[in-house]
Design goal:
- The protein is mainly alpha-helical.
- It has one domain.
Length: 346
């Protein structure tokens, strides 16, 4: 079995086992009653919302390429989005998605440097938006995390999280602005404290630092390209970023309406933002297992125990397995004539 088939199998198996476990542990008579009373129009709407978010991602790529002087049709851009999502969904930590997008843009006569700028610009916008929304999410979820005598502890924890996120955000911005100074400072602190991590970690640090340096340099160059040649693309791209995440985060509340559940809309958005951060650091293909476990925990604050399994599986089916199915179909057409995937998975 080659790596391509191996990762598809692993991704599907982890998701299948996780989904079955979540449903099996929460299924009862009330679950069956909720399924019978499902309002299908809301399920269809949830599917359409996610499909439209993919379309908006295509618009974002087209807009950012257009700002740099390259014409990519919305149809082609959307194909690039869906096919890369398929590859991202079956590789650990979604490592293969962005390189494939860059490759497919480069095949459309966009220089490699500018294709990289577009794709890294997308990721940077996603990261900035999610990071900026985390403090809001923590405050919204605060009432669910507190218990008798824990208010002061939660307040302190939230304050520490906010300070940490502010520092992280500041370092990211400064790193983009002055990558060489950030490189020097980062190496200074790591080498000063490397012995505290143990011999094994100490030997791994140089390669990790080199990877971080490379990524910071790429991000800096990408932003510089847009500032010089396509500022309008950054503005429009950020607008598309806000819209596509709003659409994707709307899938869960619409699903809950279809299951006749009462909920606070802000809480559903906040829980998904926190879940996104958890999923990003997952090393399993498509965050399999981690997504289901995290969703079961966070969604349980506003979803009844008898239908939590159905909600998690339905949400995952729309936001992940639909990407896998659509991306698989599109990938057969868009990358069948290239050996890029073969080289990646051989």
């Amino acid at each position: 079995m080659n790596k391509f088939k191996k990762w598809i199998t692993i991704s599907l198996l982890i998701g299948l086992i996780s989904g079955i476990l979540v449903i099996a542990l929460t299924f009862d008579a009330s679950t069956l009653e909720a399924i019978i009373q499902i309002r299908t129009e809301y399920i269809i709407l949830a599917v359409l919302l996610h499909l439209f978010s993919l379309f908006v991602q295509g618009i974002r790529i087209k807009t950012m390429c257009g700002a740099l002087g390259y014409d990519v049709s919305i149809k082609e851009a959307t194909k690039i989005v869906t096919s890369s999502m398929f590859i991202a969904a079956i590789t650990p930590a979604a490592v293969a998605g962005e390189p494939l997008r860059v490759h497919l843009l480069n095949r459309r006569s966009i220089p490699l440097g500018k294709a990289t700028a577009v794709i890294l610009g997308e990721r940077l916008m996603d990261a900035l938006l999610i990071i900026s929304l985390i403090p809001f999410s923590l405050y919204v979820m605060k009432e669910f995390l507190t218990g008798p005598g824990t208010n002061s502890i939660i307040d302190t924890a939230l304050m520490i999280c906010e300070v940490f996120l502010f520092c992280l955000f500041s370092i990211l911005i400064y790193g983009l602005w002055k990558p060489k100074r950030t490189h020097k400072a980062m190496h200074f602190f790591v080498h000063r404290f490397s012995r505290l991590f143990g011999k094994e970690i100490e030997t791994m640090l140089p390669s990790i630092l080199d990877r971080v340096d490379t990524e910071l340099e790429h991000l800096h160059n990408s932003v510089a390209i847009f500032i010089r040649e396509g500022r309008k693309g950054l503005l429009l791209g950020m607008g598309c970023t806000v819209i596509l995440w709003a659409l994707d985060f709307a899938v869960l509340p619409v699903l809950l309406l279809g299951l006749n559940q009462q909920f606070q809309p802000l809480v559903t958005y906040a829980s998904q933002i926190i879940l996104m951060v958890i999923m990003v650091v997952s090393i399993t293909p498509g965050a399999g297992g981690v997504a289901e476990l995290g969703a079961s925990t966070l969604f349980s604050f506003f979803v009844g125990p008898s239908i939590i399994g159905i909600v998690v599986v339905a949400w995952r089916a729309i936001t992940f397995y639909m990407n896998l199915a659509l991306g698989g179909v599109v990938s057969l057409k868009i990358i069948k004539d290239t050996d890029y995937i073969k080289r990646m998975f051989k």
